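Worked example 2:
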Amino acid sequence: MSRPNAMNKLLGQISQLGMGRALILNSSYNTMVQAQPANQRNAGVIASLEDRCSNQGVCQYDKDAGGMHKYQIGVNLSRKDKIEFLVNTLLDIKDSKEAVYGVLDAWVAWEENFPIASLKRVLSVLEKEQQWHRIVQVIKWMLSKGQGTTLNTYGQLIRALEKDHRAEEAEMFWAKRISVDLHSVPWNLCRLMISVYYRNNMLENLVKLFKGLEAFGRKPPEKSIAQRVADAYEILGLLQEKEKVLEKYSYLFTETSRECPKKSGKAPSKRIKRTGRRKGASTLEDS
């Protein structure tokens, strides 16, 4: 039976029964997903995928021994084409968590290993398109699968949340998942969060973060960080604290600052490297 005919038959069965089930197997992360009874939301997902599959011939339907229908995207496509297919689909479908998650579940079905490298490329394309809300959804889906739990991914999520005008949510994520390790969080992430606080007038949070870093003996590696802290104190009306910061880190504002050891602004290098590779188990629930 040809693929279009198989697809039409499957959709007809879904329409008659009023429900559809998708069994998605992955040997690397052992995830089993069963779709809920059909409604307008997943009907839209099916329609979107049907159109794309019909036009591009990228989907395969099969039936297992238990009579359950399996749905796989990109069985005969190259990695590049699969990435392009996913990006285009994510850009076209409506803004629904269920729709996005459904497409992503189908896209990774039967992958021998979770396609983290391909998803990073997808996220890179979405960044160029400034699709911040969609980036948040994709990363949250990854985290819900226990994948991408790295500091780089966390930083990407925080940036996307701020761009999506969700700075408070970015702050909540930082507080729950990252700030507990201030003694070893890389300065690039600390710099990012300080910037988020500064741009969104969350100055008390900025000061609190900086004090927490100082409590571990960590010093800012560049003058822009010290300047923002000083500016925050000034806006808050704490002029004495501002002057203390500028005086304490005055070496950052002079040419001789280049002679200061870089490690003075970081936790021990070995500790940072281990932390940068560690994996967490935390996830976010909602998009």
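The first helix runs from residue 3 to 17. The chain is about 55% helix and 5% strand.
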